């Protein structure tokens, strides 16, 4: 019963993180696409027609964050980086920085932007994860989320204002990858905290 309550608590926390990251990413990207003479949209304007985006991001974050520690224990792969909250917060800061770079920095072209963000994402993985399972899960998340996003945009359920690669933005897989690593680190840290509580 205690284990189920801990998993439920972790799932709720990860759900909230997923919704928060969705809001931050949307806010950064929305402000990139408006011109200086336009009135900035409200925080939730984008979600008026796509109300399902926030809960889907929350549920995905809960699933990914709960999967990382399960995969770690199943593969018995030792972590090569320190597992502590300060390290997790640095990972979150780098993830938000990658999102900020995709929204605010001007690149020569979309290929240059995508390659730069891909290098930053691999750097995030190297600094805060370094596990084969983490890299594999991050790539898997990026591929599946990109395919699902393309399907939703193709069906007209969701849309991007300035699509540049198969109905969507070319940097989106990088954001999915870095988001998966970040949520995975949060999930691992929450699982470690629960393990310490059980031992005490």
UniProtKB/TrEMBL annotation:
Family matches, as InterPro entries: INSIG_fam
- This protein's UniProt keywords: Cholesterol metabolism, Endoplasmic reticulum, Lipid metabolism, Membrane, Steroid metabolism, Sterol metabolism, Transmembrane, Transmembrane helix
Keyword presence, Lipid metabolism: yes
Q: Where in the cell is it found?
A: Endoplasmic reticulum membrane
Membrane-related topology note: Multi-pass membrane protein
Record field: transmembrane: 12-31, 51-71, 111-128, 134-154, 166-186
Can you tell which superkingdom this protein's organism belongs to? Eukaryota
Pfam family for this entry, one: INSIG
User: Record's family?
Assistant: Belongs to the INSIG family.
Protein name in the entry: INSI2-like protein
Species source reads: Mya arenaria
């Amino acid at each position: 019963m205690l284990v189920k309550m801990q998993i439920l608590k972790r799932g709720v926390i990860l759900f909230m993180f997923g919704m928060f990251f969705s809001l931050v990413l949307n806010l950064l990207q929305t402000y990139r696409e408006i011109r200086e003479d336009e009135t900035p949209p409200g925080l939730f304007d984008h979600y008026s027609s796509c109300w399902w985006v926030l809960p889907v991001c929350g549920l995905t974050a809960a699933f990914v964050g709960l999967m990382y520690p399960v995969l770690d224990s199943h593969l018995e792969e030792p972590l090569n980086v320190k597992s502590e909250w300060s390290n997790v917060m640095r990972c979150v800061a780098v993830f938000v920085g990658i999102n900020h770079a995709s929204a605010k920095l001007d690149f020569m072209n979309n290929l240059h932007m995508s390659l730069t963000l891909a290098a930053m994402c691999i750097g995030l993985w190297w600094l805060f994860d370094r596990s084969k399972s983490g890299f594999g899960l991050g790539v898997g998340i990026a591929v599946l989320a990109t395919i699902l996003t393309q399907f939703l945009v193709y069906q007209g359920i969701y849309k991007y204002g300035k699509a540049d690669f198969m109905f969507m933005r070319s940097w989106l897989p990088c954001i999915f990858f870095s988001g998966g690593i970040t949520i995975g680190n949060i999930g691992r840290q929450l699982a470690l905290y629960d393990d310490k509580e059980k031992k005490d």
